[in-house]
């Protein structure tokens, strides 16, 4: 029995946007990038993290009684009770989560074995078979937990499940690249061609990402490119033109998905006690259509969203 453990923070059943057909998407914790527009900040760090949803607090004070560090406060208001956590004092022990019955205190992330996770995704096998779908492993970044991801990949392949990897493409290890090579489909993020801007936006160089994409393309891998279109960061005419030209020279790109900026992740920063550093307005549909037209002029099948 496979005992390899990993940390996940979400599982989405019935997804239509993470590859072909109906899919189950598994979100692994841990990522080497720190994109300033990240909409899943709970996926950046490997360890489970305390999630605080203050407005869900009912003021029962159970958490105060079990927190030996004195990291929790409850501010009772006329319109409700607000729980707050001093992250400098909190040890992430989870005792407060065990006694919170409203969900005000919970964890982003949990440990799970390969077998446990496989049993969950395999329950949807009838939907994969009927729709040409399968399992998508994302995050975070799936190659950030290489041993766990590879074991899950192999388990799914042994049972004839189609596997997609939703990846930022930044891996420096042989096993990480092997995971991408053995996946059936790659959802490959591309966040800019200019290395300096890429470092500013994500914290890492894009050189390994571009080299990995070239390597995977040369192997004939099925690749869907995902481009986050972030106002003031990735939407410049120079970047769009350079990206379209670069992708037009690749032979295995099946489609380009343009992902418009949204603000759905802002609440997660609050729940983590972190600051959301990006304050931008989403592009209009007309602006996204104009960018889409540029990629299509280079012969690239392109769609909005994904």
Write the SSE topology:
Elements: E1 5-15, E2 23-28, E3 49-52, H1 62-66, E4 72-77, E5 80-85, H2 95-99, E6 105-108, E7 110-113, H3 114-122, H4 125-131, E8 134-139, H5 146-158, E9 163-167, H6 174-182, E10 185-189, H7 195-202, H8 207-218, E11 223-229, H9 237-248, E12 253-260, H10 266-272, H11 285-297, E13 302-304
Parallel strand pairs: 2-8, 8-9, 9-10, 10-11, 11-12, 12-13
Antiparallel strand pairs: 1-2, 1-7, 3-6, 4-5
Describe this structure in words.
With 306 residues, this protein is of the alpha/beta class. 33% of the residues lie in helices and 25% in strands. The chain is built from eleven helices and 13 strands. It has helices at 62-66, 95-99, 114-122, 125-131, 146-158, 174-182, 195-202, 207-218, 237-248, 266-272, 285-297, and strands spanning 5-15, 23-28, 49-52, 72-77, 80-85, 105-108, 110-113, 134-139, 163-167, 185-189, 223-229, 253-260, 302-304. The strands form three sheets. Strands 7-1-2-8-9-10-11-12-13 form a nine-stranded mixed β-sheet. Strands 3-6 form a two-stranded antiparallel ribbon. The chain has a two-stranded antiparallel sheet with strand order 4-5. Helix 6 links the parallel strand 9 and strand 10 (185-189). Helix 5 (146-158) packs parallel to helix 6 (174-182). The chain is globular and about 60 Å long.
